[in-house]
Design brief:
- The protein has 190 residues and is of the alpha+beta class.
- It has two domains: 32 residues, no CATH class; 154 residues, Aspartate Aminotransferase, domain 1 (Alpha-Beta Complex).
- The protein has five helices and six strands.
- A six-stranded antiparallel β-sheet has the order 1-2-3-4-6-5.
- A hairpin with a 5-residue loop joins strand 3 and strand 4.
Length: 190
């Protein structure tokens, strides 16, 4: 039986905020997620500065349309313009509670989709490292520089196949769950 570690983490954070005792007895909680498969093929080239974009990988129209459909079919995710350039913003509805506000770009913006189909989003920091190591993402330059507040911020490469989209969408839903404490399952939306 799977235990939803995100809810456990939210409960742990709530308990900590009420704890008046010393923090020497605190046991850190790790979020456990299914391991990511390795992405096949070469990593797309990206710029090393800001704006941070892919250089050599374009979107596949049908796959891109399905990604957009899935993203905005998730209850609590709304389509608003990004605060960065003119990209398509992935925003959290104002009716949804936020438990990790540091994992938002600005306001309630969870991420944004670039014109080439890649996207920037905050993942739980350990998951972002796994996504990078498995070939699905690259750290944003501010994350690489170690700037405060940018830990876990990645660019996820443009999905080229439905199988790649399934993994990319899983990461988007995990990012939503990380920020909101919800327990949504990506496969419920396709």
């Amino acid at each position: 039986m799977k235990i939803n570690m995100i809810m456990l983490l939210a409960t742990f954070v709530a308990m900590l905020s009420c704890n008046t005792e010393s923090d020497e007895n605190i046991i850190p909680v790790q979020i456990e997620l299914d391991p990511l498969p390795f992405r096949e093929g070469d990593r797309p080239a990206t710029t090393s500065g800001v704006p941070h974009v892919q250089i050599d990988l374009g979107l596949v129209p049908d796959i891109h349309d399905e990604m957009i459909r899935r993203i905005f079919s998730v209850p609590g995710i709304v389509n608003e313009p990004s605060v960065i350039l003119s990209w398509e913003g992935i925003w959290i509805d104002s009716d949804i509670d936020i438990i990790n506000p540091q994992a938002l770009i600005s306001g309630r913006e969870l991420g944004h989709v670039h014109d080439d189909g890649s996207l920037h989003i905050f993942l739980e920091p350990n998951r972002s490292v796994e996504a990078i190591n498995a070939g699905w993402a690259v750290a944003h330059p501010y994350n690489v520089e170690g700037r405060e507040g940018w830990e876990g911020f990645v660019m996820i490469y443009t999905p080229q196949t439905i199988e790649e989209l399934n993994v990319v969408f899983q990461l988007i839903v995990e990012a939503f769950n990380y920020v909101t404490g919800q327990e949504l399952v990506a496969t419920d939306f396709y």
